[in-house]
Each structure stands twice: as C-alpha cells, then as structure tokens.
C-alpha cells in the first residue's frame, strides 16, 4: 500500500479510519483519497484497505 | 458603512484578502487581526506526521477560508484539489490557481477557464486567479466565476501594479468583483488598485517580507480602506495643462486704482 506516495508496508488488514488514527491525524483535519476517489469521513470506518491501494491524506497549510 | 464586498452569496465588510503563506503560525493570528481580515487563503498539501500544529488552530473564529488550488498544473488537478479542499470541511469557496510555468509563476488562462466551468457546475463559489485579459475574464464569467482575480505582477515579486491598464479595462467592462491578486508589494499600490475600482486586494508576500509584519498588515488595511473611500468619492479631474488657483484670485497687497 502507498500512502502519500510512499510505501507504507504490510499493515493489513486495516480501514481508512485505522490508518488515519495510526498516523496520528485528527479526522476533522484531513481529507482522504483512495485510488483517486475521495472517501468521506462517514465512510472511514467501513472502508477496508488492500495491499495495492494508493492513499492520499491531505490537510490545510498556509498559502497564498 | 453599508458598502459590502459581495462574492457569490457571501458578504464581507473587509476588502483585504490575506494569503496565509510564509508566516509563522504565531504570526498568522496577529496579521489577520491587525489587517481586519475576513477572508484568508489556504493551500492543500499532503498531511505531515500527525501531532503537528495545524494552521486552523491559529485562525480567528468567524474568518472565511478560501482554499487555493496551488500546485495544480492543469484543470484536472485543480478540480481534484478543490474537491479535497471542500472535503476538508471549510466551505465551498475556491481560488483556482493553475500554473505550468515555474519560473515566472504565471497562470494558465485556458486551463483556468475549464476548471472554472467544472467547479462552478459543482456548486463552488469560484474565484479564478488569472493573467489580466478581458476575453479570458469574460469566458470565466460565462463559466460561472463569482469574482475575477487578475495578477498585478508575478507572485511574490512585490513589484506592484505592472498590469494596471489591463486591470482597469476589466474593472470597466465586467460586472463581477475584480480582485487584484499577486504582486502587490506596498500599501500605496493596494490603495491605487482600490481607487481605480477594484473590489478587493489580496496580499501575502508584501506583509510576510516586511520588517514589522503586524504593522504592515495594519498599513494594508488602512490603505485599502482609503482607496475604497477615494473610489466611492469619485476622484477629481486632472488638468492636462496649466493650473487652476485654489485660493481667490483677487489680488491684494498692491495699490487699488
């Protein structure tokens, strides 16, 4: 599985909720894309991750 | 004063839009407060390791967030970033910023028109950052933009209103708010933009690179207010030749005949 472009290693089975929490993120401060599609927060707990998934986890930073 | 900035269905009293980049997090709040800012831009990036401080903790309550699509090189990427920004849960305003050219950081108007159409159809309040070109601005308006954000000079340059005449054409010809974004380096330049009828000014680097950052934020606030007041006052005419006395012309201190 890839997370933010890096190999994340075999930590399966896991849901999006588990991944976000294991990386120390607050759910209300991130947005998640799974294989290019947005996963809404309400779906984190029942969205399981697979070994060949690519996940993007983004948040706000300062910017003009 | 009943003189609101209206963007889409949103109303604002401040006409100073702040870019939130390049400040320390502690400085962010002081700048927003000193500048009387009601709208601030943010960027979307890959989240770093959890537990780090988040800029949202430093932004005053009630402030409207305007996420940008910086990092996008085409309309598809801009749409993707906009969708992620909306998912982050801070409203539906979006500043489209699409840049292919990494040297001058000039925006791609064609891709920006495409992204404006898609995002306006998706229900966003769309504010495209663009190269000041009347025809492109009209296309963005037709595509559903709620404001147009032409650049004054390259991003981060502090060079000022290099594109002044072209922005004035857009002010005169378009019904949408024209907001000068990028390049404004001094309060006098922000004031000039407002005097000629721009609806708002966005600044970031001008303040972030100042010696006294909170004081410069205040200076921008005052200059933008002054420029707006001057615009509403309808500036007086300019004589092409000669002068016109401001004092009575009756002479004195000489003998009366």
Key words describing this protein structure:
heterodimer; A: 64 residues; mainly beta; five-stranded mixed β-sheet; globular; B: alpha/beta; three-stranded parallel β-sheet; 35% helix
Would you kindly provide a written description of the structure presented here, covering whatever features stand out?
The complex is a heterodimer of chains A (64) and B (257). With 64 residues, chain A is mainly beta. Chain A has a single domain, classed as Ubiquitin-like (UB roll). Helix content of chain A is 11%, strand content 31%. Chain A has a 5-stranded mixed β-sheet, with no helix packed on it. In chain A, strand 3 and strand 4 (37-39) form a beta hairpin. Helix content of chain B is 35%, strand content 16%. By secondary structure, chain B is of the alpha/beta class. The mean pLDDT of chain B is 94. Chain B has a 5-stranded parallel β-sheet. The longest helix of chain B has 21 residues, at 213-233. Chain B has one domain (5-233): TIM Barrel (Alpha-Beta Barrel), CATH 3.20.20. In chain B, helix 2 runs parallel beside helix 3. The A-B interface holds A 4-5, 23-26, 28-33, 36, 38, 40, 56-64 and B 19-23, 25, 28, 41-47, 49-51, 54-56, 65, 67-68, 70, 80, 83-85, 87-90, 155-156, 182, 202, 204-205. Strand 5 of chain A pairs antiparallel with strand 4 (39-46) of chain B.
In summary, what is this structure?
Chain A is mostly beta strands. Chain A has 1 helix and 5 strands; from the N terminus they run ββαβββ.
CATH class of chain A, please? Alpha Beta
Number of helices of chain A: 1
The arrangement of helices and strands of chain B along the chain is EEEHEEHEHEHEHEHEHH
Strand content of chain A: 25-35%
What is the CATH-assigned architecture of chain B? Alpha-Beta Barrel
Strand order, sheet with most strands of chain B: 5-4-3-10-9
H/E element order of chain A = EEHEEE
Query: What is the CATH class designation of chain B?
Result: Alpha Beta
